[in-house]
Amino acid sequence: MNDQLVSIITPAYKAAAYVGETIESVLAQTYPHWEMLIANDCSPDNTAEVVQAYCQRDPRIRLINMPQNGGPAAARNGAIAQAQGRWLAFLDSDDLWLPTKLQDSLTHAHATQAAIVYTAFRRISADGAQVGKPVTVPASLSYHQLLGNTAIATSTVLVDCSKSGPVVMRKTYYDDFDCWLQILKRGNMAHGLNKDLMRYRVLGQSVSRNKKKSALHVWRAYRDLEKLNVIQSAWYFLQYAMRGLLKYRKF
User: Fold this and answer.
1) How far apart are CA 157 and CA 138, in angstroms?
2) Mean pLDDT of the chain
3) Of 58, 56, 72, 80, nearest to 7 (Cα)?
4) Which residue has the higher pLDDT, 209 or 139?
5) Residue 199 Cα to chain centre, angstroms
């Protein structure tokens, strides 16, 4: 692993409308030692062409064309498999970073010796015209604390692979949430940086906005993946739901 290099993991599907802005936010980073691995999950639009144009502009950007459509977990794993850095940063193809995101996250990771660092952020509307209030984060999270928390937004995450152990996305509805749980279950801690460094784009068709469906999949994660009993699942689910309601009570 290259100790200075940050490997940015970006799954992309039907991302042509927004992925250019996402890449531009990476190009604007104050920290220069990165590679951006964009896994095109067999997009039917011109996602590959948009990304390829940026690859020609900057060799740090790499396009990975997945052999078949496998969803976000498979795309992320495809990019992770080719990552060369000690650090894995996750950035979805419609989200944006502020310019000091990588630098500030790395500084916090070194200061806390954390396996996972996550940051505060704001939501934006699909066209970027509306910017929401800051979504703040707790100072730290253990495995048990994360079970009942919605604090870690994927596009804010930085993982130190020298501490985390294997970083693998399992094929499940919340593959990212599941991955952070697996890392923390090994005894690691996640540390939050309460600084607004990411813009999460809210799209009308986003599956995560279907709260009933999302709640069902969180419950299944407790029962099927984490093997919690009904009482434990109910306890963590209540905390998760309450924090989610507070987090999304207004834009």
Assistant:
1) 14
2) 93
3) 80
4) 139
5) 12
Question: Which residues have a Cβ under 8 Å from the Cβ of 205 and sit 6 or more positions away?
Answer: none
Give pLDDT, residue 205.
54
As given in the structure block, the two tokens for residue 130 are 């509306």
220 close to 175: Cβ distance less than 8 angstroms: no
pLDDT tens digit sequence for 203-219: 875 444 566 777 888 88
Q: Which amino acid is present at 222?
A: Y
pLDDT at 200: 96
Structure tokens that stand for 82 in this block:
């080719």
Average pLDDT over residues 195-200: 98
The CATH number of 2-205 is which of 3.50.50.60, 3.90.550.10, 3.40.50.10420, 3.40.50.300?
Answer: 3.90.550.10
User: HSE (CB half, 13 Å, CA atoms) of 148?
Assistant: 12
* Percent of the residues in the chain that have a pLDDT greater than 70, as a whole number: 96
Q: 3-state DSSP call for residue 147? A: helix
CA distance 22 to 12: 11
Max CA-CA distance within the chain? 54
Identify any residues that bridge with 61 across adjacent strands, giving them in sequence order. Answer: 36
Q: Judge contact between 235 and 188, C-beta under 8 A.
A: no
Structure tokens at 186: 């090994």
How far apart CA 201 and CA 206 sit, in angstroms, is: 10
Return the higher-pLDDT residue of 219 and 43. 43
Q: Are 135 and 121 in contact (CB under 8 A)?
A: yes
Q: Which residue in 85, 86, 83, 49 sits closest to 65, CA to CA? A: 49
Q: Is 88 helix (H, G, I), strand (E, B) or coil?
A: strand
Minimal CA–CA distance to 160: which of 139, 190, 124? 190
Map residue 132 onto helix, strand or coil: strand
